[in-house]
Design a protein that fits this description.
The protein is α+β, with helices and mostly antiparallel strands and 81 residues long. It has four helices and two strands, in the order ααβαβα. Strands 1-2 form a two-stranded parallel sheet. The longest helix is centred in the N-terminal third of the chain and has 21 residues. It starts with a helix and ends with a helix.
């Protein structure tokens, strides 16, 4: 990868973060409060690409003190939830 291409990718990602910051509102705080008040384990679910991301989120939450597990969406339908 060239330096030019790397800088283009970083610029694209920076713009995406700026756009995301404009979308954060009071619902973000509500979601965080719900997660912090959760008793037991937080269940993160997904399928396909969102499943891969969900696994990473559950792992990060667990390693930072919020007990969390990942459950594949199709498995939850079969009674595992």
């Amino acid at each position: 990868m060239s330096v030019k291409k790397a800088k283009e990718v970083i610029a694209i990602e920076a713009e995406a973060l700026k756009a995301l910051s404009k979308r954060i509102d009071a619902n973000f705080s509500k979601a965080i409060d719900l997660i912090l008040k959760c008793k037991g384990r937080l269940i993160v679910s997904g399928m396909g690409k969102t499943g891969i991301i969900g696994r990473k989120i559950a792992s990060t939450l667990s390693s930072t003190g919020t007990p969390a597990i990942y459950m594949h969406s199709a498995e939850a339908v079969h009674g595992d939830l």
